C-alpha cells in the first residue's frame, strides 16, 4: 500500500509524557520480549520467508507496509505489517466511505470495517490468521513495541482515549494484548480503551504470559478478526 499522506493530527507535535521514565514492566518485560521474539524468529523463519514469496507472486508491489503509530511517551514509530491492501488504498477507502454512509459511521466509531474494500484476497486470509502482523516482531526487537500491550494507534485515535491516554502512553504498544483475547473487532472502541487501561493498571509478568498463551487459540479460531 502506498505511503499515506500524513494527517494534520500526525503532523502536530506528539503528546509526550514527562513520566514515567520507563515503560510499564521495566527490564523484566523487556527481557521476556527479547527472549520470546528470538525464539519465535528461530521457529517461524520458514513461514515468514514463504509469506514473502507468496506476496510477491500473488500481488506484485511492496511486501511490507509501515504506518506511523504512537508509542511509549508519545514517541512516533513506524509499525510494520505485511501489506494486505491494494496499493491505492487511501483513495479506495475515501471513495467507499463517501458512497456508503453506514460504513463511514462505523469507521468513525471503530476505525475498522467488516468488509474493507482495500483488502486483497490474500490480505484477507493473512488478517484472519493475524499473519500480517508478524513483521512487528522487528518492532519488538527494536524496543518500539512489546509482545503484550495496547494495540498501536495513530494520534487521531489517541484523542478518543480522553484521560485514559496517559495509560496508553505509559507502556509500549503490543503485538497482542487484552483486546485481542477479549473479542477484538467484536468489541466497541470504548471497551478497547477500558481493556487497555485495565492492562496497564494491573500489569504483571504472569498476566503477559497468560495473554500470550490465550492469544494462540484466539488467533487459531479467528475470534473477532475482520
UniProtKB/TrEMBL annotation:
Annotated protein name in UniProt: Sugar transferase
Species, as recorded: Paracoccus niistensis
Family that this chain belongs to: Belongs to the bacterial sugar transferase family.
KW Transmembrane helix (keyword) present: yes
PANTHER family (alphabetical): COLANIC BIOSYNTHESIS UDP-GLUCOSE LIPID CARRIER TRANSFERASE, UNDECAPRENYL-PHOSPHATE GALACTOSE PHOSPHOTRANSFERASE
Compartments reported by the entry: Cell membrane
Entry-linked InterPro entries: Bact_transf (IPR003362)
Gene Ontology terms for molecular function: transferase activity
UniProt domain Bacterial sugar transferase: residue ranges: 29-219
Pfam families given in the database record: Bac_transf
TM region positions: 34-55
Keywords of the record: Cell membrane, Exopolysaccharide synthesis, Membrane, Transferase, Transmembrane, Transmembrane helix
Amino acid at each position: 500500500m502506498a505511503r499515506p499522506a500524513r494527517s494534520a493530527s500526525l503532523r502536530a507535535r506528539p503528546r509526550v509524557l514527562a513520566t514515567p521514565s520507563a515503560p510499564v514492566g521495566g527490564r523484566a518485560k523487556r527481557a521476556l520480549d527479547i527472549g520470546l521474539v528470538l525464539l519465535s524468529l528461530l521457529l517461524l523463519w520458514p513461514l515468514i520467508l514463504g509469506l514473502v514469496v507468496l506476496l510477491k507472486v500473488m500481488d506484485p508491489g511492496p511486501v511490507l507496509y509501515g504506518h506511523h503509530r504512537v508509542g511509549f511517551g508519545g514517541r512516533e514509530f513506524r509499525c510494520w505489517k505485511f501489506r494486505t491492501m491494494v496499493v491505492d488504498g487511501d483513495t479506495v477507502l475515501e471513495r467507499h466511505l463517501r458512497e456508503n454512509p453506514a460504513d463511514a459511521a462505523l469507521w468513525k466509531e471503530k476505525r475498522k470495517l467488516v468488509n474493507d474494500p482495500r483488502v486483497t484476497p490474500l490480505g484477507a486470509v493473512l488478517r484472519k490468521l493475524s499473519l500480517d502482523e508478524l513483521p512487528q516482531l522487528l518492532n519488538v526487537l527494536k524496543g518500539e513495541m512489546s509482545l503484550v500491550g495496547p494495540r498501536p494507534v495513530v494520534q487521531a485515535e489517541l484523542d478518543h482515549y480522553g484521560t485514559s491516554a496517559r495509560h496508553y502512553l505509559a507502556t509500549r504498544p503490543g503485538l497482542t494484548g487484552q483486546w485481542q483475547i477479549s473479542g477484538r473487532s467484536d468489541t466497541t472502541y470504548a471497551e478497547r480503551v477500558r481493556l487497555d487501561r485495565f492492562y496497564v493498571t494491573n500489569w504483571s509478568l504472569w498476566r503477559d504470559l497468560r495473554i500470550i498463551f490465550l492469544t494462540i487459540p484466539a488467533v487459531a479460531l479467528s475470534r473477532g478478526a475482520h
